[in-house]
Write a structure and sequence with these properties.
10 helices, single chain, alpha/beta, 326 residues, three-stranded antiparallel sheet, 13 strands
């Protein structure tokens, strides 16, 4: 009898995705928080026992925090959270390519809304086991000219529970969202958010891998001048550089995103230069092995996030990386 080492990879992506939720709840109930200490890092008073965390999209509603802590994550990002609850985009929303270690999604910020997330976070005792970042977005029916109000609402409701906020304007799965990355729109969006967070909680900006190098550098510089506290590089991509059996719509993560994600990390370090002192750079996208984690740190990221690695390597990934870091 053949025993599959990773049996979940033989299941359709949608089924595996649904099964992961109760399994994470069981892990959170059965295991105590676990601390892997390697390359400890301190930023803005936040203590990171290790620099490896989960990216947004894995825990949209803060349901599995105990599981991430039990697995050894160095920090956790929840969300994307929007003011009002919303359902996924219609039709198929997730797929996987095992050959290319790629994941596709067209979810579009499905979540229970800020009130439900706030209620859940109220039940979690502080200080948290690790820093907690909250990824925020606008509801799909909110026009871009009013987007800042959605982000402000999330910040005001969740401020007592966040160690940092992440402004998500780079998902490809909400129509028109990436238009907020243009210089004028970005300034209009960020100014009130930065003012609201100033001196209280750090605010990070998540950027798209599909921007041109020029537009990417411009967004870095303009957000820096406005007073942003850091950046996450990068979101999923609309690019299809290899033969993937995915819809043209929706974002791709995993190994096909690695090269572009590294390019933009290098560009960010070069563009910011000495001005990045005190700012936070988080690299995500195509981080699939322990070697990838260490490479991103050596390229200049202070923190690294994973998503697809947990799908293809399984929940012991944090332990594997900690062992190789020793």
């Amino acid at each position: 009898m053949v025993v599959l080492k990773k049996p979940w990879l033989s299941l359709p992506a949608g089924i595996a995705y649904k099964l992961s939720h109760p399994l994470l709840k069981l892990i959170g109930l059965a295991k105590s928080p676990r601390t892997f200490t390697w390359r400890p890092f301190t930023w803005r008073g936040l203590q990171f026992a290790n620099p490896l965390g989960i990216s947004g999209g894995l825990d949209k509603n803060a349901e599995y925090l105990n599981a991430w802590w039990a697995l050894g994550a160095g920090f956790v990002e929840i969300g994307t959270v929007t003011p009002l609850a919303q359902t996924p985009n219609p039709g198929k929303i997730i797929a996987r390519d095992n050959k290319h270690h790629a994941v596709w999604n067209k979810m579009g910020f499905p979540n229970e809304g800020v009130a439900a997330v706030k209620s859940r976070l109220k039940q979690i005792k502080r200080p948290y086991h690790t820093p907690l970042f909250i990824n925020i977005g606008k509801n799909r029916q909110t026009e871009n000219k009013n987007a800042s109000q959605d982000y402000l609402h999330c910040i005001r409701e969740l401020k007592p529970y966040a160690d940092a906020f992440i402004v998500n304007v780079s998902s490809p799965n909400t129509a028109g969202l990436r238009d907020l990355l243009t210089p004028e729109n970005l300034a209009n969006l960020l100014k009130p958010l930065i003012s609201e967070c100033a001196g209280k909680v750090p605010l990070l900006l998540k950027l798209s891998p599909d921007m041109t190098d020029s537009d990417f550098s411009s967004a870095l510089v303009s957000s820096l001048e406005l007073g942003i506290d850091g950046w996450i590089l990068t979101n999923t991509t609309l690019a299809r550089d290899i033969d993937l059996n995915f819809s043209k719509e929706g974002g791709v993560s995993g190994r096909p995103l690695a090269a572009r994600s590294k390019e933009l990390l290098k560009l960010a370090v070069q563009t910011l230069g000495d001005k990045r002192h005190g700012k936070l750079l988080i690299s995500v996208g195509g981080v699939m092995t322990a070697k990838d984690v260490f490479e991103r740190l050596n390229l200049g990221a202070q923190l690294v996030q994973i998503y697809s690695a947990l799908i293809f390597e399984g929940p012991t990934f944090f332990c594997q990386v900690a062992e190789e870091a020793e």
